[in-house]
């Protein structure tokens, strides 16, 4: 009989690893092959790219083929300071601390994989992930048999969600979730309600982008993304499995876990947790890959972050648990705002062409406070909240189509009044990271089911990599396109904020276009300045809350108030005065 080739042996070991059936000797053999043999490393990449394991561990691969991935792996590129999908980073990003919450956020927002690691690091990670399947089984051998079988797991959506593939949940309805099924949430916040036989209940929130599943014993597994767990004292949810190890806890616990490629964070909001991982074993793959203690404990109120960079030792950073790192831990009502008479007088004094306050809505008509022209109307259903003196719009309050696809539009064009100079000012509170249009000045028939032609656009970029905004996840985008009919061809028509936008906090956005440049301000601070001599197209109308007038796409989920459009460029002094009348101290951009 012919002796099995090295390739056959490698594929056999990888297959066993994926199935979780590696024995200790086989695990050591696989680690040795990946650490020393370039051909074995390439073969492992090719094999695992055809399996969900690598996709789940390093974030899902959609656009890159094997050759381009191997080409990137073969280059020993250092860890980028910002999003690995970014082609160009803002200069200040390069000077951030390695433990900056901002830089971690940017990595967490990226949908494309962390494809900039040297081969040796990849080999260690592949071996780590495969071996962790074995480790988790060994550490908790026999434990799962004692856990009660989940009576039911119901999947609902806390916000409008975008999924990769078919999901057996109807928005707004709690549908039973098929257990042991891998799910990929691209955008939004999903909630899972777990009920156990003769035990308590628990809830799990998943924030996109994320890959995850619920096992048949009711234990969540997170392959990448963010997840929070709230369990009652009688609940039998006991752990969250990640590619870097198992996070365990008991009794009443409120816990947040995030994992992206080479970084794991655990936040124990209430109750303690422990982490068991191969990275805590001495010398599993090399002399530098270990931490002294085999098990790490995270006390109640504390946070632990584990970072792995190339061949350096795994780095552990500890601090206070931070609920603001998870959108599901924040309430939309936590940050309130009030626009008093002083603010209204300041805006009126600056004489906008149109000013909508949303305090008085009559039969879905929103009056322009500056005159009879440019009244706006509601398409679909948009809620208002607040008191009788100060109300604001709430988009996506319900998950029924009338709310999800809602918009505010004007039927009268601005003609040539914005052709050279324009300012758009608004206050927004995003629910979550989302690819969503806030304000568009567009051409196109008012009620035709077609794509709008955008002259000006102010939008949020989401966590996923899309064609135009792939390098700028979680940013505010300001676009000026002339003519509006022009097909998108380059990024020079767009500006992006240098910082990510905040979640569930009010932010003051101002987009200014004059004859020579476009400027973007957030909370009174200049975020972007770009040379732009193109004029603004004529005959534009306004759409608020989604990308197209009558085609639901990029719908905004969050709150919005005090929208003004000016036919001249507001000065920096005017912008800061408006902001400081509401927020006396400029808000600090903080990533989540």
TrEMBL record:
<dbReference type="InterPro" id="IPR013320">
    <property type="entry name" value="ConA-like_dom_sf"/>
</dbReference>
<protein>
    <submittedName>
        <fullName>LamG domain-containing protein</fullName>
    </submittedName>
</protein>
<dbReference type="Pfam" id="PF13385">
    <property type="entry name" value="Laminin_G_3"/>
</dbReference>
């Amino acid at each position: 009989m012919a002796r099995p080739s090295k390739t056959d042996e490698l594929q056999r070991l990888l297959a066993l690893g994926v199935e979780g059936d590696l024995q200790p000797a086989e695990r050591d053999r696989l680690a040795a092959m990946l650490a020393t043999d370039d051909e074995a490393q390439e073969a492992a990449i090719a094999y695992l790219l055809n399996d969900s394991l690598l996709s789940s561990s390093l974030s899902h691969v959609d656009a890159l083929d094997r050759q381009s991935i191997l080409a990137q792996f073969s280059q020993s590129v250092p860890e980028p300071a910002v999003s690995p999908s970014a082609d160009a980073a803002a200069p200040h990003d390069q000077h951030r601390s390695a433990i900056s919450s901002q830089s971690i956020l940017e990595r967490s927002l990226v949908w494309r994989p962390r494809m900039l690691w040297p081969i040796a690091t990849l080999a260690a990670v592949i071996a780590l992930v495969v071996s962790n399947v074995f480790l988790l089984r060994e550490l908790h051998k026999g434990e799962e048999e004692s856990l009660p079988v989940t009576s039911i797991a119901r999947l609902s959506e806390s916000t409008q969600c975008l999924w990769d593939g078919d999901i057996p949940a109807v928005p707004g309805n709690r549908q039973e979730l098929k257990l042991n099924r891998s799910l990929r949430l691209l955008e939004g916040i999903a909630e899972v309600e777990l009920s156990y036989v003769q035990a308590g209940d628990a809830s799990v929130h998943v924030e996109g982008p994320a890959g995850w599943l619920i096992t048949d014993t009711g234990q969540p597994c997170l392959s990448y993304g963010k997840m929070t767990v709230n369990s009652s004292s009688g609940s039998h949810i006991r752990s969250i499995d990640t590619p870097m190890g198992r996070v365990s806890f008991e009794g009443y616990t409120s816990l947040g876990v995030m994992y992206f490629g080479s970084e794991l964070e655990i936040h124990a909001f209430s109750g303690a947790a422990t982490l068991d991982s191969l990275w805590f074993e001495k010398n599993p793959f090399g002399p530098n890959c270990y931490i002294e203690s085999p098990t790490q404990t995270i006390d109640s109120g504390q946070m632990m972050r584990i970072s792995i960079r190339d061949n350096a030792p795994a780095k552990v950073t500890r601090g206070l648990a931070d609920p603001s790192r998870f959108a599901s831990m924040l309430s939309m009502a936590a940050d309130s705002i009030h626009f008093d008479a002083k603010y209204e007088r300041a805006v009126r004094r600056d004489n906008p062409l149109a000013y909508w306050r949303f305090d008085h809505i009559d039969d879905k008509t929103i009056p322009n406070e500056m005159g009879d022209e440019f009244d706006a109307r509601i398409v679909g259903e948009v809620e208002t909240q607040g008191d009788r003196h100060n109300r604001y719009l709430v988009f996506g309050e319900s998950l029924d189509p009338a709310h999800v696809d809602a918009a505010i539009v004007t039927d009268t064009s601005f003609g040539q009044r914005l052709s050279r100079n324009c300012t758009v000012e608004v206050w927004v509170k995003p629910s979550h990271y989302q690819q969503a249009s806030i304000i568009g000045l567009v051409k196109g028939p008012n009620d035709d089911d077609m794509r709008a032609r955008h002259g000006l656009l102010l939008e949020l970029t989401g966590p996923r990599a899309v064609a135009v905004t792939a390098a700028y996840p979680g940013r505010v985008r300001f676009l000026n396109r002339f003519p509006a009919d022009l097909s998108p061809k380059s990024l020079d028509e767009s500006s992006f904020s240098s910082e990510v936008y905040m979640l569930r906090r009010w932010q003051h956005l101002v987009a200014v276009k004059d004859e020579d440049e476009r400027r973007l301000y957030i909370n009174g601070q200049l975020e972007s300045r770009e040379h732009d001599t193109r004029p603004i197209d004529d005959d534009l109308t306004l759409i608020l809350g989604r990308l197209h007038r009558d085609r639901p796409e990029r719908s905004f989920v969050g709150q919005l108030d005090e929208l003004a459009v000016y036919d001249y460029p507001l000065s920096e002094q005017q912008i800061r005065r408006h902001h400081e009348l509401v927020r006396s101290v400029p808000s600090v951009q903080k990533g989540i």
